[in-house]
Design brief:
Strand order of the largest sheet: 1-2
Shape: globular
Number of helices: 10
Helix content: 55-70%
Largest sheet: 2 strands, antiparallel
Radius of gyration: 18 Å
Strand content: under 5%
Order of helices and strands: HHHEEHHHHHHH
Number of strands: 2
Length: about 210
């Protein structure tokens, strides 16, 4: 696991302080690397939305909040359904085989939360890439990378993993049956239902 992945995992496990500047010297000692890969990792995490500016040149871990979670699922629902609609007629048997491979990997035990987030995105990416719309794809990927920050809640207290996997399987069956309208409706519900559940949980947590 590279430095960026290690920092992400520690953020998800609440092992790094939120709301205070992250010090490169401390992180360098923690991860056993020089300040150069730490600096590069922090810059990358900032661009992905995992960190926010603090002071003149510093960064910190932002608090998780329901408004951001809501924004993310609302944007994902619109843009992923658009991308999926463009891709649907071009999804191949090979794409479906690869998508099922990522689902099987997600079912394995002892996976890190970061890796689970990556596998979840790879599953969706496999279904969307046939659209061949790289600009839209990059935006959707960025939203998914930010959403991983909330995966600890979805796979933890919300217990959403099994339901999510079942829905992934059902989505593949709709694709195989070539029922585009039903598949689009189902994908939107898949994203929105998980988002609403998370948003309501965070509202109660922060009240």
């Amino acid at each position: 696991m590279d430095v960026s992945q290690s920092i992400k995992e520690d953020i998800l496990k609440n092992q790094l302080p939120r709301g205070v500047p992250l010090r490169q010297a401390i992180l360098s000692a923690r991860y056993g690397v020089s300040r150069i890969p730490i600096r590069d990792a922090l810059s990358s995490l900032k661009s992905e939305g995992w960190l926010v500016p603090n002071g003149k040149a510093g960064v910190m871990i932002p608090d998780l909040n329901w408004t951001e979670a809501e924004d993310l699922y609302l944007m994902r629902a619109e843009l992923e359904c658009l991308l999926f609609s463009m891709a649907f007629d071009y999804i191949s048997k090979e794409d479906l085989i690869k998508a099922r491979y990522f689902l099987s990997e997600l079912n394995k035990e002892n996976l890190s939360l970061v890796y689970k987030g990556e596998l979840n995105w790879l599953f969706h990416h496999t279904l969307y890439r046939a659209a061949e719309r790289p600009t839209l794809q990059r935006v959707v990927e960025g939203l998914n990378k930010q959403a991983v920050r909330y995966l600890g809640f979805q796979y933890g207290p919300l217990g959403y993993k099994v339901r999510s996997q079942d829905q992934h399987e059902e989505l593949l069956l709709l694709i195989e049956s070539k029922d585009k309208n039903a598949a689009l409706i189902f994908l939107r519900q898949h994203i929105e239902n998980a988002g609403i559940l998370l948003t309501e949980f965070l509202k109660k947590l922060n009240s």
